[in-house]
């Protein structure tokens, strides 16, 4: 039996640790769990798996046209270390899923998959450890496509949206399947290869795990604590929210207590091989050569306090000009933003989602 999901994304954990504004919408209906098992799966690395399991949640009910085709499906993609269930958090679901909300579950059929290597989908910690195939973002999008089409019977998506890694997957979806969706919304990401500081901290995190003697080439029986601690330290910084942390961690002691608490929680929740693979999956991501092939209307959203995607680089402004129906929105720093984790605080950017859905309605 597969192990239960062991971790949430870094930014989801950080966001839940910070003070949230009151959410007044009524609770949304419970999500339905499902699994799709693919046979004889080939990865871009040349490796194979006899079986690959993709776990997912759905909310809402499919609507069909006169030909029986599902017309209201929305695919929502999580970030590195996350799962589809993170989108049930109140700062996301409570803002987007309720009656009259942008993704009202009485109107839309929402699909929330766990990516390869994440949550309750197949991952190294299930037993293969470092012998698990070295998947990349293209493999993850291929699995999402097969889930949607082969298992759920969806031939066209109303919207593809994603946060962080899921935002990068959204760019890949727009290029590989340009006619498959009405609209695209990538959040907290960039449409270029991961280089510079973004690549640097990722390599440092991976090296910390690999260079720990207790990692044992991936065949450890106890977690390599030193390597995992260093990797978690780097992830905490990458997902940090300066303004929120300055307010909520206002004394030296509160900072120390916060770090100690987070380290205990995350050491217990993370598997070193899973984390290593999750970070490494970004190694060959680069949608920039084919941005002109994206035809669906797209709104790209980043926040100005994002350590991982700093606005001073000007990348998004430069590259969005190459997207036929693209628009870039930079959310300024405010009491509502949460650094990289702003992508999950839907109240900050829901107006742009509403705009995108309205302008692409048929």
What is the global morphology?
A: globular
CATH classification class: Alpha Beta
Separation of the first and last Cα atoms: 44 Å
Please state the second-level CATH architecture: 3-Layer(aba) Sandwich
What is the CATH superfamily label? Alpha/Beta hydrolase fold, catalytic domain
Strand content: 5-15%
Q: Widest sheet: strand order? A: 1-2-4-3-5-6-7-8
- Please state the CA-atom Rg, rounded to the nearest Å: 19 Å
The percent range for helix content is 25-40%
Judged by helices, strands and strand pairing, the structural class is alpha/beta
Strand-and-helix sequence, N→C? HEEEHEHEHEHHHHHEHEH
Mean pLDDT: 93
The number of domains: 1
Poorly predicted runs are: 1-26
In total, the number of strands is 8
Which keywords apply here?
362 residues; alpha/beta; Rossmann fold; eight-stranded mixed β-sheet; 11 helices; 8 strands; 15% strand; globular; disordered N terminus
What would you say this structure looks like, in words?
InterPro entries: AB_hydrolase_1, AB_hydrolase_fold, HAT_MetX-like. Keywords: Hydrolase, Signal, Transferase. This is Alpha/beta fold hydrolase. Residues 1-30 form the signal peptide. It is a single chain. The chain is an alpha/beta fold and 362 residues long. It has a single domain (10-197, 280-359), classed as Rossmann fold (3-Layer(aba) Sandwich), CATH 3.40.50.1820. Helix content is 33%, strand content 15%. It has eleven helices and eight strands. Strands 1-2-4-3-5-6-7-8 form an eight-stranded mixed sheet, sandwiched between helices. Helix 2 links the parallel strand 3 and strand 4. It is globular. The N and C termini lie far apart (44 Å). 47% of the residues are buried.
